[in-house]
Amino acid sequence: MHKDWPRMATELSQALKEVRTGSPETMKAFSALARAALEPKALDGKTKELLALGISVAIRCDGCVAFHAEAAVKQGATRDEIMETMGMAIYMGAGPSVMYAAQAVEAFDQFSAKKPAVE
What we know:
Helix 1 (about 5-20) crosses helix 4 (about 60-75). It is built from five helices and no strands. The protein has helices at about 5-20, 25-40, 45-60, 60-75, 80-115. It has one domain (about 5-115): AhpD-like (Up-down Bundle). By secondary structure, it is mainly α. The termini are far apart.
């Protein structure tokens, strides 16, 4: 099964605009929660995105995989770091996480292919 993860993230972003419009106070609170959770403190942003991606796999959330794979790329995660994270997700989520780990790697690879070269 091959999914177009960048397209999924784009389509979900459009759908999420509807949720923001329909439930603005809840979504403002959710955004504030996300900002607080992602703020680099003892853990840097990349580590936090790797954790989020691993949890996304363990709970089997396609949209979460798409957004956190993209964010991991933006934070500079390497494919080796993704693979180690997938190992932890599989350990914590058992068999179903193996299937989602394969999808998360595919998502990371697709977003990596889209990433502009850093000079």
